[in-house]
User: Fold this.
Amino acid sequence: MADFRIGHGYDVHRLTEQRKLILGGVEIPHTLGLLGHSDADVLTHAIMDAMLGALALGDIGQHFPDTDPRYAGADSLQLLFHVNGLIQAKGWQIGNIDATILAQAPKLAPYIPRMRKQLAQKLGCALDQISVKATTEEHLGFTGAQQGMAAHAVVLLSRIPKPMYRRPVGRVIPL
Ligand code: MG
Assistant:
């Protein structure tokens, strides 16, 4: 049995007026926000899909259907906490996450430290396990036209070590 699993997640949400822009749990002042059944946090959605994908547990559409009124306006960080519990229950923990947001505007760099902090806190990780980056697509495509935002994430999971009992003679016995 391997000690590591890797997962990839990708998500897109449409930009529209009269919606909040929430990325990595951080509300960002902007004229447009992301449209969705939940808070439409495209970054957190990509991260959850990567975590689920690493263990072949399906995707967030299966776990949190957008037809379910319980998830209307849902705080995606709470969903992330739930997904983290699922992977921990299966004996896995986050090694590291690397994510990229694709957005033409606004400038996201000032908000990235807070996104990393929120995600790390919710996942019980150290800050240096969580990388968030942002790029424009040079005015190309739907992100360039500010019709939407997208996010990619990759996650590495490692097996949670089993508790060990160390005999005085030095042999390690798995409990
Ligand atoms: Mg989504």
